[in-house]
Amino acid sequence: MELQFKINPDYIFLHAINQSQPNVPFKKWEDFTNRIWEGSKGIFYFLGGYAEYQLYLGKEKNIEKTAKKVEIIFNQLRKSKEFQRLVTETEKYKLFIEEQWQENKENVLKLIEELSGLKSPDKTIRVYLTHPKLKNGRAVDNQTIAWGHSEDWKNYSTVYLAHELMHIVTFKKTKNFKVMHALIELMTDNELRIRLNKKGRYFKEGKFNVGHPYLRNLEKRILPYWKEYLKNKKEKNLFDLEGKIIKVSSNWKIK
């Protein structure tokens, strides 16, 4: 499995403009987006995504007319210093991510196969990067990841790229997404992180809580089964363990 890190300036910009305040890549970004808003709320909604734009259709019903305006303004925005700074800082981030992944990938891919009991697919995964000060992390499909995040602790990006890779490995094969997601977090966010950094504990890294809060109670219920899986490997892979958890969890009251 190979990761191919990519930069798409338009995607970087549209991801940034879709962030809610106070999430900004740099100090002057808020003023920049406010100017777009003040120039035309319809165009701002259009840039923010078609779903949001539809909310504005009561006042601006001519989509084709607005789309033409957006194209003109978007070409102007591409030349702005804010747009250029956003892309430049993301390109710098790309170099950092590539270096970290190259340093860790051999060990990480080996650990992924060892911990999951699953073979990594022989293919190239595209990773589209966004500004590191704006949170982004998801497997878009079975060969594409969107990623951008501050480096909250050592090898943060490597661990969460492994997390998204596991979503790709288990893509369309999982029987219960919530259970599988919890297992992926136990495997990557926790066990992989600890092994990679040679220190740490589950669910906490320094001042940071690790993993999605909505999965925490489920993960703590699963944890003994996960530890037993790591110790004895009675279940040969993550799908087998998922099946076991689905059976034993039928009476669990997990909020």
Provide structural commentary.
This protein has 255 residues and is an alpha/beta fold. Among the domains are: 10-85, no CATH class; 174-255, no CATH class. The chain contains ten helices and six strands. Helix 3 (41-47) packs across helix 5, helix 6 (81-116) packs across helix 8 and helix 7 (156-169) packs antiparallel against helix 8. The longest helix is centred in the middle third of the chain and has 36 residues, at 81-116. The radius of gyration is 21 Å and the shape is elongated. The mean pLDDT is 91.
Q: Whole-Å distance between the termini?
A: 36 Å
Number of strands: 6
* Portion in beta strands: 5-15%
Cα gyration radius (Å): 21 Å
Number of helices, counting only DSSP H or I runs of 4 residues or more:
10
Oligomer: single chain
Q: Biggest β-sheet: count, sense, barrel? A: 4 strands, mixed
Question: Strand order, biggest sheet?
Answer: 1-2-4-3
What is the typical, i.e. mean, pLDDT?
91
What string, H for helix and E for strand, traces the elements in order?
EHHHHHHEEEHHEEHH
Low-confidence stretches: none
Approximate helicity band: 55-70%
Structural class: alpha/beta
Shape: elongated
